[in-house]
Specification:
Helix content is 45%, strand content 11%. The protein is built from eleven helices and five strands, in the order ααααααβββααββααα. Strands 3-2-1-4-5 form a five-stranded mixed sheet. A hairpin with a 5-residue loop joins strand 2 and strand 3 (148-156).
Length: 307
Amino acid sequence: MRYRFMKTSVSYINCLIKEDVEETRGDPLSSMDKLLITLRFYATGSFQRVLGDLVNIDQSTVCRAINETSLKIAKLFHRFVRLPTPEQQQQYVESFYEKFGFPRVVGLIDGTHIPCKSPGGPDAELFRCRKGYFSINCQVTCNADMRIMDLVARWHGSAHDQTIFNFSTLKMKCEENYFGRYFLLGDNGYANKSYLLTPLSNPLTEQERKYNRIHKTTRNLVERCIGVWKTRFPVLQTKSRQKLKNTLKVITATAILHNIARDLNEPSPPPPEIPLPALYQEIHPVVRNLHEALPDNSTRNVIINTI
């Protein structure tokens, strides 16, 4: 699994990106060559490792191949990363209920930090996250099959999860009642709303404690989804030496490839070839939300009494 996909799947991905841009006549590297270089980079996060697998290819050529292929894959975003249609929502809800017993859940939401190079300039420190390194704070929403159905990958590392959600298209759709009577689950970093339920900070009754237990078990799936995504593509766990705009392409491209892997039933990814430094280990502290003073608890109260 040096390229994180089976041979047939790599051929399928190559066909997808060849539909976008025809190969340039006289280019020393074919579309397949560029794809393999890119997948190997995603699997290691190291230009040196990629170069070590290749013969007579300059590092600048490798860099151009990665950036070009990442952009081609990223252009497939709306084809492979999309919210469920009104017809699909019932299927999503049934899948969550069958697995966890939590009713009316259509998706799970969480934030995760992807290390990046300091962009420099007066706003560089905005990218320094709570653990002290530079990062992109990404908002990930997934379904019960750990398929990413929405991704926001453009906010600096110091941005709060609630802030990212407030300015996202996903919140706008929620406010427009896109999911109807269904809702998302999130942690305490978000304000509780009728369309986004969070755990109770101080459960008092057995029914409230039961709600929190099932909520935690269900919501943990989004953390598993993020873990599988990052394990399949360790480039997301190592400090990037790329420019910020290229790092954003890689994040988007790997999210698309994660969904393709889920669609094609690819085997679970092996552990990273390069051990992950403790600095970049994902953490999920309990963060008190101070962004919205008036949460909407009506839907949560109904669920607590019926779960």
